Amino acid sequence: MSTAGQVIRCKAAVAWEAGKPLSIEEVEVAPPQKQEVRIKILFTSLCHTDVYYWECKGYTPLFPRILGHEASGIVESVGEGVTDLQPGDHVLPIFTGECKKCRHCLSEETNNMCDLLRINCDRGVMLADGKTRFSINGKPIYHFVGTSTFSQYTVVHEGQVAKINPTAPLDKVCPISCGICTGFGATVNVAKPRKGQTVAIFGLGAVGLAAAEGARVCGASRIIAVDLNPRRFEEAKKFGITEFVNPKDYNKPVQEVIVEMTGGGVDRSVECTGSVQAMISAFECVHDGWGVCVLVGVPKIDDAFKTHPLNLLSERTLKGAFYGNYKPVSDIPNFVNKYMNKELGIDMDKFITHSVPFADINKAFDYMLQGIGLRCLIHLDA
Q1: Does the active-site annotation cover 48?
Q2: What does the record give as EC number (predicted)?
Q3: Under a CB-based contact definition with an 8 Å cutoff, are residues 255 and 292 in contact?
Q4: Is 232 tagged catalytic?
Q5: What end-to-end distance do the CA atoms of the chain give, in Å?
Q6: By C-alpha distance, which of 148, 94, 150, 136 is closest to 117?
Q7: Catalytic residue chosen out of the listed positions 76, 98, 114, 232
Q8: Is 287 designated active site?
């Protein structure tokens, strides 16, 4: 019997308070309202952003909440006014959106800063009516970045849903919905290194290694990784990294180390840690005259970036990149197709280093907090 229009009861991993293990609960998931889609989530994975908001370090607490935003699944039903999606479609929910109507969506100057659906980590309700679609015994459970994929069913605005090739393996393409596109696009679409140039990557998490893959695909001659965790160095060679720098090994700023290594600085750098000091180092290590630094990591809310104006006046370029400069609904289906056609040059298997059933979701948090592995794939039907 069809579940369309009905409340669905399913399992979800609920965060009841900051920093405490998630609890697997039975939740009620309401039907999608106007411009909304209800999705059966099959696979999800843990991203650093989930951990930041679970810990609530420097952020406003909002609990109880269902976190999660990197996922893949199948459309179960659609709400009023939804015409581009239908039950059975294979999709990736995206933490930021594309309304296709606002100045940002219509502009040729920007790709993904939608006025209506831009990422909002503090909003815990849906836009249609300011209410949640999740509840337990009538008590509302808040949403996270409009996706809340740590639930077997979730409700998402249609502008945050990318319809993908139905033959794409949903377990493999799950990380594309956040980490892979964010890092790869930051290099390929924003930093744009030329063949033979040098690139420094700050941070060897999944986003940083996706950025390294982008540098490799662009033909960089040297890809220098900067990370405080030496355990990541050997594994990173699989992603095209050629050299490694641990700032702890030096008694001077790491940017000075890189400038000396490269005879003046790298041609491009991509920062993927969220550390303001790493951002400063990434900018100050690029070559004067043509060096480009791209910031990807999300800093703490009260952080400030400081560098001497001469670093800009000497014609270094500082840029920011959001979601790899991809439009979520328009660009991601093509990204998946390129992956399927082996046109991207990315092996998704390298990014998925752990796999757990839904009941063991807290293990994924343990792996990330310990700096073990890259992405832990969580099977919601297991």
Answers
A1: yes
A2: 1.1.1.1
A3: no
A4: no
A5: 23
A6: 94
A7: 114
A8: no
